[in-house]
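User:
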Amino acid sequence: MTRNRPLSELGSPPFALRIYRTVLTLGKPIIKLILTRRMSRGKEDRARLSERFGVASIDRPAGDLIWIHAASVGEALSVMPLLGALLKSQPKANVLMTTGTVTSAKLIAEKLPPRAVHQFVPVDEPGAVKQFLDHWRPNIALWVESELWPNLIWQTAERRIKMALVNARLSPASFRGWRRAPHLIRTLLQCFDVCLAQDHDSARRFEKLGANKVIVTGNLKLFAPPLSFDKKALESLEQALDGRPCWLAASTHAGEETIIAACHKELKDRWPNLVTIIVPRHPERGSAIVESLKEDGLSIACRTNSKSIAPELDIYVADTLGELGLFYRLAKLAFIGGSLVRHGGQNPLEAARLGLPVLHGPHIFNFTPIYRLMDRGKASVTVADGTALSKAVDNLLKDEGKRRDMAARAKNVVAGTDAVLHNTLTAVADLMAHGPDTVDGSTDRAGNAVS
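Assistant: Predicted structure:
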């Protein structure tokens, strides 16, 4: 599995990349200081910090190695079905999965199958990147969504390692940002042999920025299996709830929890036994969330401190890792966070797949195509602010028929998506076996023109 494109086609690094490499090389002491400070806040793994400088903590497995890089939890989970399919289709190959966050490392470690290992991605300092690539020597590199580290991309391409951008997504804001550095982004994107885009909007943006063969294969997040859960934990929590009405605010970001608490106080007049569950996007914020909401006179508890829901509890902050599937199954409806603040939203498909009515705010620019599907299918409701959220939650709590209807529509949105995995696997297999010239980039896998 060697790169078909001659090394000479890469040319010399553009001026911006040469400056970037120089700054990162000279700034290595500062990078070490930043990582040390992150470690003190629990954002780096002390035992594995050397991996961030390209020093592997395990040996490279023999034979072909497929390297998959995903930025964080969402991206890593979305590509797990592809990882499994690749191992099944390549029985002698192994997979190296890299991510950049402690949360993703903990979660992925529990889900990786045999013949797959995890390492932290190195910082984008030339020496760290070189040491990483010297050790692992991957045969092919699959980058998930839009995680573009210039040194890592360039050095990988220099070694003639085949590269694909998988489940590629580019928001309008990112597109505008990259257009301010047209030569750099064109150079980086042309290091990839193929770009497998989630949707036609992203495909057109990647093409305008200079990407090589672009194929619309669909969004792997549509294919992801239902989130797992602990059956005994669900039974215990259902027993503790004892029929009390319950709704969920999932993947919330700073600034949204106060809105959720205000909604709870307003709803409590009509639903005195109401339980609101908050699952923050970053679980380490749990204690801070509890402290910030205590002044509202509500009874609040963290899951890390209380494994059950007390009869008098108002708000339950689920600050644990990997339990979102549990709380989706416990609640009657879900608000998806990152959308009442200008974060850009979070993935609603996990809730939809489990048949939950979905509410979301107006700021969903990072997931526009997915929410477009949800809204067109009448599987979700947009709320402009906290007042609208309270009204929507109230309406759904008192209308079981509407909840059932939205749940069925949500399941319909994510139904019949097996082709997404097949499309992606076929394109990657073509690249592995024959090189980029065999991957047809003029149409998507359904035969539709990309642009």
